Amino acid sequence: MGSGTPDRRIALAVALSALIHAAIMWLPQVHLPHTEILLPPLTAKLEPLPKPAAKPLPKPAPKPRRASPSKLATKPASRVKEPNNTIAGTPEPASLPAIEAVPDIAAASAVEAVSAVAAVSAEEAQPAATMVEEPEAAYPLPRHAQLAFSVYKGLDNFQIGTLNQQLEISGDEYTLKAVTKTMGLAKLFKNYQLTQTSHGKSGKQGLQPETFEEEKINDNDKQNIKATFDWMSQKLLFSQGGETALPAGAQDMLSIFYHLSQLPMNREIIPLAVSNGKKLEKYELGVGPEEEIITPMGKLRALHLRKLHAKGESGFEIWLGLEYRLLPVKYLLIEPSDEVAGEIVITSIRTAD
Questions:
Q1: Cα 291 from Cα 329, distance rounded (Å)
Q2: pLDDT digit string (tens) for 77-116?
Q3: Residues 86 and 155 in one domain
Q4: What 3-state class would DSSP assign to 196?
Q5: pLDDT in the model for residue 353
Q6: CA angle 146, 151, 155 (to 5 degrees)
Q7: Within 13 A of 128's CA, how many CA atoms are on the CB side?
Q8: Beta carbons of 180 and 162 less than 8 angstroms apart
Q9: Do 284 and 265 belong to one domain?
Q10: pLDDT tens across 285-294, in order?
């Protein structure tokens, strides 16, 4: 019995402890539903939130935005009546009146679009102006031209031959032919004749040769060469064999002298790629000042250009007649020793359009 009493006490203590712990653990579960029950008022508090959110939207929006379309509506009306708008080059009368019917935000974006169009139109107007100025600055080539020259040996005024050049332009095609031959006593010592022919396209960009042919007769010796300008494949083909890359604006030994009149002369150096029928060379022509030269046609105003060449290389100088559409009026042929091999001076010019 003595031992049983403690056991009962222990059992009772354990039972009481279990009840106390159970009660402690159950109490928070009882309070949790009350906290969850408080959630529905939160949803009730969310209901009035749209009301203050809706109030600021109509108040600031109508006042400034309704004032801007009215101002914009008056501006297009004045621009429709007055042909000279403040924004040049934009078709505003057709687009701006529609701003009155669109929402405020769309009207603001439309104004930005109109200003953007005006800026683009202003930028596009600049190259259009330069395109208009180019034909004024360039000297248009005549449709038909015949130029006659006297060929002198060195600078001693001893005439040894003649040079005749003929230009024919039909549609967008041109043909250039030049014949140089000895005459008089010079012909007794050497029968020399050089015939050069250039054919290709003619346009606003100048001459674009397609073929260049040269026939040289030196006493009983005759030589023929030909160069083909294949612009599609960008290759220059030589009749004697071989080919090379064809750069844009390349010329031949004859077309270059007429192509120069179509180039701007406001530069100190004009780079050009030129073929003599056997190879392609890079030329640099230095633009000199205006000069007055003496010719059988009298005094002529001319623009002086010279090929820049290194020592030991041949070169030439050319004068373009300012009173004759920048057609060639004088040549100087320079040997690799820097001595003047010949002088070619204009004697007559005939042009027709």
A1: 12
A2: 444 344 444 434 434 444 434 433 333 433 344 434 434 4
A3: no
A4: strand
A5: 87
A6: 140
A7: 7
A8: yes
A9: yes
A10: 999 999 999 9
